[in-house]
Amino acid sequence: MLSLSNVETYYGNIQALKGININISAGEIITLIGANGAGKSTTLMSISGIAPPREGKIIFMDREIHNLTPDVIVSLGISQVPEGRHIFPELTVLENLQMGAFLRADNKQTRDDLEYIFELFPILTQRRNQAGGTLSGGEQQMLAISRALMARPKLLLLDEPSLGLAPIVVKQIFEIIRKINTENNTTVFLVEQNANLALRLADRGYVMENGRIVLEDSSENLLSNEEVRKAYLGI
Amino acid sequence: MLNLSEIKRSLLVSLWFIFLTFPIMVIRVNPIEKIVEWRWGNMLLVGIGSFVISFIWRYFIRQKELGLKKIEMGEKITPLLKKLAIRESKYVKSLFLTLVIAAVLFPFVFSTYQTTIMTTVLMYVVLGLGLNIVVGLAGLLDLGYVAFYAVGAYSYALLNYHFGLGFWTVLPLGAIMGAFFGILLGFPVLRLRGDYLAIVTLGFGEIIRLVLENWNEFSFGPSGIANIPRPSFPGIQFSLQQATVYQYFLTIGLAVFTIFVVNRLQDSRIGRAWIALREDEIACQAMGVDKVRTKLSAFALGATWAGMVGVMFAAKTTFINPASFTFIESALILSIVVLGGMGSVPGVIIGAFILILLPEYLRAFAEYRMLLFGAILVLMMVFRPQGIISNVRRTYELKGIQK
């Protein structure tokens, strides 16, 4: 469904990605784990076109997307939940969700999707007319995920959904990610620092270090891998 | 309310002011008779005056903080202004009717002088609403807005001078020229935000003014262009007074048109994209909003109005030169937007009325006019930083999910 081959991305003169290869098939949950500054977020930004790669190819559903602008990439069916949530603080919850459907013209289905979202996250129903900035961290994360879902993505890019949240909320959010994956057949690409949780959720995982992929395996194998356990699971 | 610490603080303030103003208010050197006058009476006045003002000031600040606490505790306060902002139809309808009648009768009741002032106010209403698109909705701080105003005015003056084009031909051309220059400014500043953007737009405004001032062959330099014809009406020759009234109604027409369009824009898709872009650029891109197009459209649509008002301005004064388009003009328009309430249409309208009419009617205070004007601005920003009418956006209710 999505494949990155030899992707290199720069911020000015600083090379953040040094030739990345990733393959994702439809319906999978894939996770990308690694330390701070390894280039995980940059990988997502490169896919969504916000930080376009200088070298390499990104192919999404038989189409080269590395030269496209972010709005076209979203319209093709890739939605990103940026790190740190990035909700619109002064827009209401409902307006935030409507922004998620910005590129859609099918009002009827958008409304159905909105109802589905409110079923998925009942707390957002109560907060519907509240400004986004007044929500708690966990609620904001739920809103950010919901907003991305409002675009009806085929591929959902999640950047550190556990960041700064209480363990119980993280668990809740991860359960919903699984639900989204099974119910809608949405492919999920999850970037996480919380390697333990991420690997338990995902089918396969990639490990990243200093802008390179150093390991790629099924989640079970990674969880039992001695080096991964030492470096990322703290066992 | 009368507690000791408040009195002590006000006392300190007044002592400080006595110290500060001592050299200018108390000592006066008379160089002719070579003596030093000590005006101790002035010191007393300064002391008492600053004590009282500081005491009242602190009292109001406390009241304001109490008010904020009340809001936090969930008590709903809906003053008339807020109701107006939410556009409760009951109030709006009667208010609207009164306004229409007042506007129509105005030139026939008041003098030509008053009508001219009112025309100026309405022009600033349109300018404020135009800048409001850029600053209030899209959140792009533009300090060079007057450049587009100048572009409109010079479009009319020059096209009329060289090709004899009339007011009605140039009005849409002025709008297009404004939009064109808006995009011209927009391209280089696409990647800039906040302070940097403000500085570049400031520079842009100055460049336009300096070009007009120095390129004699093109714009006749500082001596400007005179004898610009007033707006025409086919088949009728106006006297000066009639022309003033005619211009007044034209400006009302433009203002109403602007209010209508800006209102529609605000609730449209592109309006929502502007607001979202103001709030969070990265999230906006992740939602599929085309950043380049959204920003450029804000600059272009904002500048369009300035271009049109520029044409009107040239037709109204019949003479323009670069001195009318200095930075202070940009600052005034920006003040209208900020004072009125960023992003709020009724706020900007009221802001324009206050900021243009106040200096006119403060003429009674002669030399204290600008001092009072400044004091009112400071008070406004301390006690109502969100503007006279803060922006209350419409909340949308979707059927089917209400509980």
Structure, described:
The complex is a heterodimer of chains A (235) and B (403). By secondary structure, chain A is an alpha/beta fold. Chain A contains 10 helices and 10 strands. Chain A has one domain: 3-Layer(aba) Sandwich (Rossmann fold). The longest helix of chain A is centred in the C-terminal third of the chain and has 18 residues. Chain A starts with a strand and ends with a helix. Chain B folds into 2 domains: 72 residues, no CATH class; 274 residues, Orthogonal Bundle (ABC transporter involved in vitamin B12 uptake, BtuC), CATH 1.10.3470. Helices cover 72% and strands 2% of the residues of chain B. Chain B has 16 helices and 2 strands. A two-stranded antiparallel ribbon of chain B has the order 1-2. The C terminus of chain B is likely disordered. Chains A and B meet through helix 2, strand 6, helix 3 and helix 4 of A and helix 11 and helix 12 of B.
Describe the structure concisely for a colleague:
Chain A is of the alpha/beta class and 235 residues long. Helices cover 40% and strands 27% of the residues of chain A. The longest helix of chain B has 33 residues, at 40-72.
* Top-tier CATH class of the largest domain in chain B: Mainly Alpha
Structural class of chain A: alpha/beta
Helix content range of chain A: 40-55%
Radius of gyration of chain A: 17 Å
Number of helices of chain A: 10
- Overall residue-averaged pLDDT value of chain A: 90
| Straight-line distance between termini of chain A | 34 Å
Q: What is the count of DSSP helices of chain B, taking H or I runs of 4+ residues? A: 16
Question: What's the CATH H-level homologous superfamily of chain A?
Answer: P-loop containing nucleotide triphosphate hydrolases
Number of strands of chain A: 10
Spatial order of the strands forming the largest sheet of chain A = 6-7-8-3-9-10
